[in-house]
Amino acid sequence: MRLRGTLTEQAFRKELQASKARLFNDISMLRFLHILKETFPAMKTAYILYWIPEQGEDIITFLVDTDSVITIELDRYDYSISPIVNVHPIEEYLCKGISKINQIKVAVSMDLAKRDLNL
Question: Contact at 8 Å (CB) between 112 and 10?
């Protein structure tokens, strides 16, 4: 998908940049960051694509670098419960038939990740 600089893309860009800052700087995200680093030891950047807060757990989907999507389901209160982790190559994730708006969000996050990796 080609980015055109629309207002939707600009809004996603702001949201995704804030999500990256939160992931790497907010202590409440430490458990997620630890799982990401365990799963991808060479990880350089990550963006939160989706966050689904459930009653007792959080389900967050991340783009890691430019080649993987990982979904982590983590119990909010019981640290002894192992997280549920699903990893997919980005190509496989994009083939799932995600909506147009989500395709835009993934494209913007890919653009941001490429910029991060080129620094």
Answer: no
SS3 40: coil
Give the integer Cα–Cα distance in Å for 85 and 58: 12
Question: What does the domain layout of the chain look like in residue ranges?
Answer: 7-118
* CA dist., res. 26 & res. 32, Å (int): 11
| Chain center to CA of 2 | 20
Cα distance between residue 58 and residue 76, in whole Å: 7
Task: Please check whether residue 94 is in contact with residue 85, taking contact to mean a CB–CB distance below 8 angstroms.
Answer: no
Distance between CA 48 and CA 21 in Å, rounded? 10
pLDDT digits (tens, 9 = 90+) for 92-101: 998 888 899 9
For residue 47, which of 34, 38, 60 has the smallest C-alpha distance? 60
Whole-structure pTM value = 0.92
